[in-house]
Amino acid sequence: MLQIDGLTLAFRQRRVLEAVSLQVAAGETLALLGPSGAGKSSLLAVLAGLQRPQGGSVRLNGRDLLTLPPEQRQLAMMFQDHALFPHLDAAANVAFGLIERGTPRREARQQAEAMLAAVGLADRGRAACHTLSGGERQRVALARALVCRPQLLLLDEPFSSLDTDLKQQLLADVAQHLAGLQVPALLVTHDRHEAFTLAQRVAILQHGRIVQQGTPAQILARPASSWVARFVGFHNVFEQYAIPPQAFVLGAAQPQRAIVAVAPQADGWQVTVAGDGAPWQLLLSARELAGGPPPQPGGKLAVGLRPEELLRWPLEAGTMPAHQDQQG
Questions:
Q1: Distance between CA 101 and CA 104 in Å, rounded?
Q2: Cα 44 to Cα 180: distance, rounded to the nearest angstrom
Q3: What pLDDT, in 10s, does the model give residues 154-173?
């Protein structure tokens, strides 16, 4: 288990991390989700031994990580740029860490080939790096991170350079492999889809502080603030409340509202209508439009609200998981 308590990091007068506390169990993946500059990569740098914090503690399976040099921390990192050695073939890249730790070359090569097979690259061990596709290079990087059997796996935005289709495939692959490991994994990303797909739990960072953590379902159901709601993808967010998609009601019995703007989407239409005091944005599928004509600016849409479905801030007592903050 990874246990982080009260971690604080500052560069000169700027606080980068402030009283960060997290737990990641063996076999669990936790995503650190937040915008650029929120402190996500700085936290990984502390864990890897590249930065020394001003306060707090970090323990991994009972060991005090902060007292150990980087090479003794028994962790592995997977980067967004793969960081493969171009002069080595795929298997040699995977075997590199084993050889550095003293494993005989033949044995290291065998273990590397086995790990490549485990990530779906059984026939690519002798392939030169420049001949590998982006997805194959990503799998080689994953195999290299896993082959030394680390006690902690750190994933630093490993999918940010991939196109959408390849990212979807690799997210499923990596999730499958991580599920079979009994090591904690920490994923850093600014992409909520990556975080919600790959991680069992998510911690959202804002200005170096954890403002909410929980399962993806918990966060989507009850974002802790208007800022969190916007960050995780809610469109209709106001100072004291947000309108989740399930709060909208369509049908002839609802008020007729003027359509202000329309934007086609891959799975329907994004429609902006005149709401109660501020415009509302709805994503309507072809089924919801019941085969009628596409919505047009200047037209009308019958839409109302279920008041009981609105999310209001501050949240009521007992609705926020531990370590959450109501700032936003």
A1: 9
A2: 23
A3: 988 877 666 667 677 777 77
